[in-house]
Design brief:
Its main location: endoplasmic reticulum. With 399 residues, the chain is an alpha+beta fold. The chain contains eleven helices and eleven strands.
Amino acid sequence: MSAVMMTRKVRKWEKLPGKNTFCCDGRVMMARQKGVFYLTLFLIVGTCSLFFAFECPYLAIHLSPAIPVFAILLFFFVMAMLLRTSFSDPGVLPRALPEEATFIEMEIEATNGNVPAGQRPPPRIRNVQINGQIVKLKYCYTCKIFRPPRASHCSICDNCVDRFDHHCPWVGNCVGKRNYRYFYLFTLSLSLLTIYIFTFNIVHVVMRSVNSGFVKTLQDTPGTVLEVLVCFFTLWSVVGLTGFHTYLISLNQTTNEDIKGSWSGKNRVQNPYSHKNIINNCCEVLCGPAYPSVLDRRGLMRDDLSVPTSAAEPATNSNPVPQTTKTTAPLIPNEHTPDDAKPSMADAAIAHAEKRSPSPREDKLPTLPKSSPTPTKVPPLASPETDAEASIIAKDKAL
């Protein structure tokens, strides 16, 4: 088996870190824990459905047809603000790239210097001045960035959120810079809708009790009894939450800052974001500019995939590499020579000696033609026995 690298284009939301879920090709962004969000939908839709089915027909005839009309408009506004809060990017900050994280680490080490072994390194913070007040920027070890002012890391979504207020399980998303105003409008409109339904449920029971009695009315309208119970227990929490956020908006403060006591006035620390005016604070939070998302969820990026291929099917390649055989013949220029085919050092020295220019002495000697070299016969060497016999014959001839 072999693998072939293939490149395909994917949306950036498919590779985003964190614990968020995306739908509709990245247009919808929510937290992974959405069970309570479905409960919120069920309570709102169920209560309003019972109100439209049982109370609205009677109230439209005996009181005013504008009652169900206003209830329908308020219901759609509540649902629009809920979905806008739940399906939007709350202001998630992108994490640092590996190169950026390395540069930040080097910058921190250069600033803090070498920390002796056994000692705790100093906290990673930066000081900035906002409206004459020193604000500390904390370093996020998960995202590898210095968080902007008022930003915090959500442990449930595992992302840094700009102007982080809190993580709301009822809407299934974080509440931050980009969806806080919609969250506040959702709680405000839901409070009005709850009060509206609860009030006209009581009016419906009172009007029917005049003719048939209170007990008989409760027996004939079990849906109304259920609505009254749901609205009664919901009213305290929703109205209380709306009042708390109204107080925070008037001070231009977040829930996270209020819980931590960031601007409680201790040590002469004041809120640098407050305009010291309730109207100006409310206008900034609710009527300020709509901030764009910095994630680019639907942008395109390349993703390399390794696709396994079987050995029987040869992998297609646009630039096939030719197979080479081992040879001792000289290779063409710019071609890699195998180690076992390279000439040895002795062969290289002989070749160099043959190529060098002849000396003046060698020019005087006659040279034989290279085409027909004449072999030279060397006489055999005489052995000691033949030398002795030759000396004896020479003596006899002398006598």
